[in-house]
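Priority: low. Protein: Ribosomal silencing factor RsfS. Input follows.
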Amino acid sequence: MNTFEQSVNAVRIAAQAADRMKGENIIAYNVGDKLGICDIMMIVSASNERQVLAIAEEIEKDLHVKDHGLKPRSREGVEEAQWILLDYGDFIVHIMHDEARDFYNLERLWRDCDQIDLQLDQAPHADDEQDGAE
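Result:
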């Protein structure tokens, strides 16, 4: 299994953890061709600070347990819990309060990138989001 496939598998674990904690609008993009810093960006929304923190903790726990002790290289935003960034090197997870996600609109940065199938029942599709915006 190559590095990208390993990252996809890890991001799917993270997405399942976020989904289990009632994270919303979970989406991931293959940004490897556009960015030199990582291969995948995942974004998940939460309705309040406590939920943002709970999702981040669940993602960290699951990746550690289910992916050979994987730990983030860095964690940012834990104090405020408005936007927590978990940097795993080959992929980055953004857990964002709904208002922060709406304001920063990270999806616009990667809308030209391929979306990764997270294998979640309710994962949004880029086409669905664009249709709703019209």
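The chain has one domain: 3-133. Confidence is low (pLDDT under 50) at residues 125-134.
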